[in-house]
C-alpha cells in the first residue's frame, strides 16, 4: 500500500547510512520509490501504447494485474515520468517528515505505460534516467516524454491494488 511505502521511505531517510547512500542504500531507496508509484491504482498511458491496447481489445473500464502487460514478450514497459534516481536525490536534499515525503512522491507523477520503442526514444534523447536540462522540481513531470516526442493520452489503465491481488491469490 502506498501509505506504508511512504512511511518506510520516511523512516529510512532518518538513517544516516541511507542518507549517505552507504552500501546498497541507493538501490533500496530507489526501489522503494519505484514501488510507491507502481502501487497506484491507475497508470497513465502513452498514445502509442493506447493504440496497441486498443488493437489488443483491452477494456480500459476493467482493472488488470500489472503482470498482464509485463514481460519480454510484451511491447510495454512501466515507466516513471520522473526517474526514481531524480526523486531520490530530491528526497535526500530535504529534511523530511512523513507528510513531506508523501507530497514529493505524489508530485513525481504516475507510472506511465509506454512502448519499448518509446523507451528507446528516451534513451536516444539522453533521458533514460534524467530530466531535461534546466528542468527543476515542480516543472512538468512529463517534460522528458515531451522532449522524446512521447505523447500521453488522457486515458488511464486501472491496476489491481496489491492488497486485492494478494486476496485473489488465496482463493
Give the key terms.
171 residues, 13% strand, alpha/beta, five-stranded mixed sheet, disordered C terminus, globular, single chain
Quick structural summary:
This protein is an alpha/beta fold and 171 residues long. The protein has 9 helices and 5 strands.
How would you describe this protein?
This protein is 47% helix and 13% strand. It has 171 residues and is α/β, with parallel strands linked by helices. The chain has a 5-stranded mixed sheet. The longest helix has 14 residues, at 25-38. The model is unreliable at 165-171 (pLDDT under 50).
The major beta sheet can be summarized as: 5 strands, mixed
Order of helices and strands: HHHEHEEHHEHHEH
Class by alpha and beta content: alpha/beta
How would you write the strand order of the largest sheet? 2-5-1-4-3
Shape: globular
Write the layout of secondary structure elements.
Blueprint: H1 2-12, H2 16-19, H3 25-38, E1 42-46, H4 47-55, E2 63-64, E3 76-79, H5 84-92, H6 98-107, E4 112-115, H7 116-124, H8 143-147, E5 152-159, H9 162-170
Parallel strand pairs: 1-4, 2-5
Antiparallel strand pairs: 1-5, 3-4
Amino acid at each position: 500500500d502506498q501509505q506504508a511505502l511512504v512511511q518506510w521511505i520516511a523512516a529510512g531517510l532518518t538513517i544516516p547510512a541511507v542518507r549517505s547512500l552507504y552500501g546498497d542504500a541507493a538501490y533500496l531507496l530507489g526501489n522503494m520509490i519505484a514501488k510507491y508509484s507502481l502501487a497506484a491504482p491507475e497508470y497513465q498511458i502513452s498514445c502509442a501504447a493506447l493504440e496497441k491496447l486498443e488493437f489488443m481489445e483491452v477494456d480500459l473500464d476493467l482493472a488488470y494485474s500489472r503482470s498482464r502487460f509485463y514481460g519480454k514478450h510484451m511491447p510495454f514497459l512501466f515507466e516513471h515520468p520522473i526517474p526514481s534516481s531524480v526523486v531520490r536525490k530530491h528526497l535526500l536534499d530535504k529534511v523530511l517528515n512523513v507528510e513531506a515525503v508523501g507530497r514529493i512522491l505524489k508530485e513525481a507523477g504516475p507510472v506511465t505505460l509506454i512502448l519499448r520503442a518509446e523507451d528507446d526514444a528516451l534513451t536516444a534523447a539522453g533521458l533514460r534516467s534524467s530530466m531535461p536540462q534546466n528542468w527543476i522540481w515542480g516543472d512538468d513531470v512529463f517534460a522528458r516524454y515531451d522532449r522524446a516526442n512521447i505523447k500521453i493520452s488522457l486515458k488511464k489503465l486501472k491496476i489491481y491494488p496489491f492488497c486485492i491481488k494478494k486476496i485473489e491469490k488465496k482463493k
